[in-house]
Amino acid sequence: MSQLSWSPTATLRKGLRIFLPISLALTIYLYFFPFFGKCAFPLPPVQHNAPADTGYHAFLETVKLHLSLPSVPVDETDPTSTPTVTPSRPLAPFRLLALGDPQLEGDTSIPTEYLGVFPHVKSLFRHLTFQTSHASLRWRLRQCFHEIVDIFFEDIFNLAESYRKRFDHWGNDYYLAHIYRTLHWWSRPTHVTVLGDLLGSQWVTDDEFYWRAHRFWNRVFKGGERVPDEVAMYPADEYDLTGYLSTSGPANDSSVWTKRIINVAGNHDIGYAGDINTNLTARFEDAFGKINYELRFELPLTNKSLTSTLFDALDNPLSDRLVPELRLVVLNDMNLDTPALSTELQDDTYSFINSVINTASAVQFKGHFTLVLTHVPLYKPDGVCVDSPLFTFHDHDGTLKEQNQLSLAASKGFLEGMLGMSGNKDAPGNGQGRKGIILNGHDHEGCDTWHYINQSFVEVERLVQSEDGEYEIERKQREWEVKRYKQAKKESLIGREDVPGVREVTVRSMMGEFGGNAGLLSVWFDEEEWEWKAEYATCPMGTQHLWWVVHFMDFFVILGAVLLAGAGVAGRFGVDVDRAVVRGLRRMVGGRKYRRRTGERSERQERLRGEGERHRDERGKSRDRGVLKDRTRSKSRRRLERRGVTPDQQLWSEAKKRLDYGKS
């Protein structure tokens, strides 16, 4: 048998040797990206006045959750100590996995859903069957030719784009699901929230809305559950606790709340103030849960001797300590600003806020913490975050159409009302307000800020002459200010007694173009200061292109491995796979095109031979004939090799032909 110049199985084997390690490495990185990114919930400090640990120790304790390493108590306050086994430290009792703006798209972005399949074919049929009216036959034929052109340049491309879009939606769902599933498994959160814009548009039909909701619960957040209506409570003076924050176990998490998804309504879910109506809010609450409610979690005291220090109206009236409690407020803030389409729904939102304020503990008490989950961020001047202040209004009724942030007045109500802070140091609790933090979405780029008011600012009044010559009184009052959190920390604004403030974290979007980001919020209780403390970290996975490349590469590597294994099995049964593949490729690639190339080559050779006969001598002619004869003989040999004739058999066949010719 003749030897082939190219072996498909050898090429496939070499390709697998190159791409298999690359595919394996990328797959390991993709499915363990929190490990390689050293993602972990911030760890409470060993000393009560120390900052939270967001680095090595937090990551190491998360690793221990999966390895179950033994814990050895070591004094970590001594920086010179080098223990052989790193000790285990307690995790924060409240760990919130915060995800922002998944924005699931649907059929509204697929051309064939709103244009139909080959719409110009249908139009062409109507023109040809005289179902349309035209001024003349010439105009009818002209329109028919237009439809034929549109079939090739619009319908075919729209059909291909529709298939691509559907495949992209499918992949995007599982890309988002990969972020949630991997981080939920790795970081072990106690609670999970999605901070609005669950869907891509509020203007979809009910059928499309519930189809996207089905994808949300059965693809992206598979295994998750909405917060039951009976658990999502309205604020009241006499309330039932939602649950207790566990301090026991390696991850001190609750099997109930780790499955529940705390959903916040966004503008792409129910619209802005000028869009929100009862139908949009009703279907959102039906699929994802209430838009306004609160949850209250109590932290049991591990040190029972501290119970005697708690406030009691009869036994301990002078104490300012309350039972440690975390209050989680879910708020629809899309209709806080005016004008609103539905004043009834806007009144419901303000009534809810007033109930939150009226049922909150007095600001002079310690031990309660307020976590506010909203969608639209608070007001910030231009240049602080990526999104600048923006307000647009509908032309037909003047209602609010779009906004990047809340107005200054609405933000002030947040800070002074719900959190009880004040610029007046003589206010209750010295104007420090309640401990808390605000989390929201909307700004896909994300932002981490500190809102504060300087109580030491001296308010002044002075006369200022206006342009018309009259004098007016100008008042410089204390105003709320905002800076990036890192900048405020560098300027020592955080923790000052005369500068009340609160942290606001706008979680960066989990969409692929923003890096598949997730937020990790830890909240713990400091028994020495009798106050709650919080710290925030991020964990990006990477763009959606990485997810696509890895899975495409895995698919082709697995396919190649299966084909190579199949070729090995076929070879054991005597099948020459290489020869069969080469023969099939020649038949598939060759055919008429191959014969045409061969014919063109023969014509070119004949033309060159004719020119040689005219311009060369007899010796040159014979040399050309010899070359052509050798080429013809080599072609004959190749044909015989393809038939399986060996060189020895070929020589014997030629000699036998000469003998037969001589006898004749």
Automatic annotation (TrEMBL):
SUPFAM superfamilies: Metallo-dependent phosphatases. The keyword Nucleotide-binding does not apply. One of its GO terms (cellular component) is endoplasmic reticulum. The chain crosses the membrane at residues 18-37, 546-570. Keywords: Membrane, Transmembrane, Transmembrane helix. Residues 597-633, 654-664 have a biased composition (Basic and acidic residues). Residues 594-664 are annotated as: Disordered. The keyword Phosphoprotein does not apply. GO terms for biological process: GPI anchor biosynthetic process. This is Calcineurin-like phosphoesterase domain-containing protein. It comes from Neurospora hispaniola.
